[in-house]
Design goal:
Strand content: 5-15%
Shape: elongated
CATH class of the largest domain: Alpha Beta
Helix content: 40-55%
Low-confidence stretches: 1-19, 393-406
Number of helices: 16
Number of domains: 2
Number of strands: 8
Strand order of the largest sheet: 1-2-4-3-5-6-7-8
CATH architecture of the largest domain: 3-Layer(aba) Sandwich
Radius of gyration: 22 Å
Distance between the termini: 40 Å
């Protein structure tokens, strides 16, 4: 119990200091190495004395085996105390299957994996997922929306089933170019761009680089729990984060790239012992997720290459879309979460205030994965907004207040 309490305290401290999946990977990985090493050392100390017939403390053996068991088999026990039970009829998250698969080749060698679901004659919702995840993040979008719309989901370069570029460039400009390539699959049908986290940043970068396409092809934007500038500046503890960016965050990104196979191995260990799920629970959620949803999203994080994650972090440090916000001339829905630590609600409020006519929905209580925790509310907001964009329905909102009540 004492070890668990200390772990939670350290996670909360790390969450405050550095708002990134990168820290989660390093912290849980190093914790897992210490846990495994401590168990192995205790067992060895007992055996070393026992083998030469010296007094061997049996407590060393018991605690050593306990720590080794926790290191390799702890995840099922840890997750028993995390998350909630599924609501009646609530589907368990799983990989998307059954869609039409498209492979798009980009000039820099990137191979984009795209899947489409729903009728080809329906208006299109184009989804861009968050960093370190994959298009499987949109499982509930498929569950709730694929009967009324055609869904286009894709894996960002280097993640999921998409192959990364030859030159290892993961800038937001490149990702916006990838989004424009995926948009071509929609044909002449009206499209709403939906982005979560870095998916929203990619969408806003697309607005800056392709204004003519935005005006001609896009019926609306859904920006879910994202930001308008370097996320280091709009996460919990921003004042400290800005100080630590150059001396800590940037070198840590480069170290992760250089040691990527090792980071991958130690974080696989952290998945076995449950510390990855524990950190993900406190960093990404607000306790409203099911145990299965927590396990599924933790698995997505593990499958992401640490080198790709780190290069994306470096790219986000150079991101800023502040200037483009007042020029966006299509309907925009901003979805925020009350307890989002990665992109504070203030970032969403800034988007609503600076994008002309933008509306906002608040998920509560919810963390950075609020679209999973409250997927029904999220899907209702997207569906209502999309129907109005595609059919010119009037908004249902309080007079003078562009914050929706759902």
């Amino acid at each position: 119990m004492q070890v668990e309490t200390q772990t939670i305290t350290l996670i909360r401290l790390g969450m405050f200091l550095i708002p990134s999946t990168l820290l989660l990977l390093w912290f849980t990985g190093l914790f897992s190495v210490v846990l495994l090493g401590s168990g192995a050392w205790l067992v060895w100390e007992w055996y070393d004395n026992w083998a030469v017939q010296l007094p061997a403390n049996p407590r060393y053996l018991v605690w050593g085996l306990l720590l080794l068991g926790l290191s390799l088999l702890g995840a099922p026990f840890i997750t028993l105390f995390l998350g909630r039970k599924p609501r009646p009829g609530e589907a368990a998250m799983k990989a998307l299957t059954g869609g039409t698969v498209h492979r798009l080749s980009r000039p820099d060698g990137t191979q984009l994996h795209v899947e489409s679901y729903g009728s080809e004659d329906a208006p299109v919702l184009l989804f861009t997922h968050g960093w370190g995840l994959s298009s499987d993040e949109w499982f509930y979008a498929h569950q709730h929306l694929s009967q009324r719309y055609r869904l286009l989901v894709w894996d960002l370069r280097g993640l999921g089933q998409s192959k990364g570029p030859r030159d290892h460039q993961y800038g937001l400009d490149r990702m916006a170019g990838d989004l424009n390539a995926v948009l071509a699959l929609a044909g002449d049908h009206p499209v709403i761009l939906c982005g979560h986290s870095i998916g929203g940043m990619t969408t806003l970068t697309f607005c800056r680089l392709y204004p003519a396409v935005l005006s001609a092809r896009i019926s609306g934007l859904v920006l879910t729990q994202t930001t308008y500038t370097n996320p280091v500046r709009t996460a919990l503890g921003a004042r400290v984060n800005r100080v630590l960016q150059e001396p800590v965050l940037r070198p840590l990104c480069h170290l992760t790239i250089w040691l990527s196979p090792l980071v991958w191995a130690i974080n696989a260990l952290s998945t076995l012992n449950g510390s990855m799920a524990l950190a993900n629970h406190f960093l990404q959620f607000k306790g409203q997720e099911t145990r299965q949803q927590l396990g599924f999203t933790t698995g997505l994080l593990l499958r992401a290459s640490p080198a790709v994650v780190a290069r994306g972090m470096l790219a986000m440090m150079a991101y800023d879309a502040s200037d483009i916000l007042p020029t966006i001339d299509v309907p925009t829905l901003v979805i925020s979460a009350s307890s989002d630590r990665a992109t504070l609600p203030e970032a969403s409020a800034h988007l609503r205030q600076h994008i002309p006519g933008a509306e906002q929905v608040m998920l509560s209580p919810a963390g950075h994965m609020g679209l999973v925790e409250h997927h029904e509310v999220w899907a209702t907001a997207v569906d209502t907004f999309a129907a109005r964009c595609f059919r010119s329905m009037p908004a249902e909102q309080e007079p003078g207040n562009n914050v929706w009540k759902i």
